[in-house]
Design a protein that fits this description.
The chain has 280 residues and is an alpha+beta fold. The longest helix has 22 residues. It binds 2-acetamido-2-deoxy-beta-D-glucopyranose (4 copies). One 2-acetamido-2-deoxy-beta-D-glucopyranose binds next to helix 2.
């Protein structure tokens, strides 16, 4: 008996995506340029996960990411690794250093912080910070909070051609240093004006091997996103032909079904089969 029910269950399970997959067009999925926008992200209000609401905007096929520190261009959304790659036009790289405090840095709204964080092996290199910067307060001069992150840091960054343009300073020897590298974890907010820094660079490495030097690093901000507990309920919603969204009033997740909204999923038949199969 159990075997028959389980077999039926698996048959239904494999048919549901076929039946609904062809008919149902996910109203929440979208594109911007060549980037696919899918759960937990969305371009429309009411779609996606509420932690990512009012975050992405598509303008002339360019996907923009907006948080309290400013707007960034999204270069990539890696759904498998749950990561976004961002670009800030005033982000310093190996070829150019932008001073004047125009860079965004990286500061997220406190309510969004559980959902978005730069990856632990993304290095932030703060450039031209004043001696009065909060970065350098409370540390004996030989023990500044500046550290390499995954083999990337200012010592290596100084080898970039951009530094020869900025000028031959006593690189690494001046106090405070011209550049101070750290992970996002170390300070939780890269606010250039608060930290009294002139500019910043940010780099990450996707290669499992140690890279030759700073010209091989990828410049940009690599951000990890997480949806925490809601992932399973979203999968159940999508399996029933719904689209994952949220109630714009109360900001709680809902399953957007054809013509109605459900707090679980669109397909009561699928729920019954699951319930029967669970009884043995
Ligand atoms: C998307 O387009 C950009 C240029 O606009 C290109 O650099 C990038 O490689 C493309 N990405 C994919 C995944 O095709
Ligand atoms: C379902 O929820 C979405 C998003 O909150 C809303 O735009 C839509 O009007 C709702 N539909 C119904 C039928 O309540
Ligand atoms: C950055 O710090 C400055 C000065 O403390 C503050 O006025 C500003 O609101 C902060 N910016 C963000 C995005 O938190
Ligand atoms: C880390 O930084 C130090 C200087 O503080 C440098 O000498 C060293 O080579 C760096 N280590 C790695 C693994 O990049």
């Amino acid at each position: 008996m159990t075997l028959v029910l389980l077999t039926l269950y698996f048959i239904f399970q494999s048919f549901i995506p076929i039946i609904f997959g062809n008919v149902h067009i996910n109203p929440c999925r979208g594109y911007c340029g060549n980037l696919t926008i899918d759960y937990p992200f969305a371009l429309q209000s009411g779609c996606g996960h509420p932690g990512f609401r009012e975050l992405l905007f598509c303008m002339n096929d360019v996907l923009m990411f907006h948080i309290s520190s400013g707007s960034y261009r999204v270069l990539d959304i890696d759904y498998a690794y749950q990561a976004l790659t961002l670009h800030d036009p005033h982000l310093s790289t190996c070829d150019s250093i932008f001073l004047g405090g125009k860079g965004n840095g990286f500061v997220v709204e406190p309510w969004r912080a559980p959902y978005l964080n730069p990856v632990p092996d993304n290095v932030f290199m703060l450039i031209g910070c004043s001696a009065q910067s909060p970065l350098f307060q409370g540390f004996p001069s030989k023990h500044l909070p500046c550290h390499n992150v995954s083999g990337m840091g200012c010592e290596e960054y100084y080898d970039c051609p951009a530094w020869s343009i900025v000028g031959p300073k006593r690189l690494g020897l001046s106090s405070p240093p011209e550049c101070c590298s750290m992970s996002y974890e170390a300070i939780k907010s890269i606010n250039l004006s608060k930290l009294e820094c002139e500019g910043y660079a940010s780099a990450y490495s996707l290669a499992p091997l140690r890279l030759e030097g700073p010209h091989e690093w990828s410049y940009g901000i690599r951000v990890k996103y997480s949806v925490q507990r809601n992932d399973a309920s979203c999968r159940a919603c999508e399996a029933s032909g719904g689209s994952c969204g949220y109630d714009t009033g109360e900001v709680r997740p809902v399953c957007l079904c054809k013509g109605w909204n459900s707090t679980s999923n669109c397909d009561s038949v699928a729920v019954d089969i699951t319930t029967v199969a669970a009884i043995d």
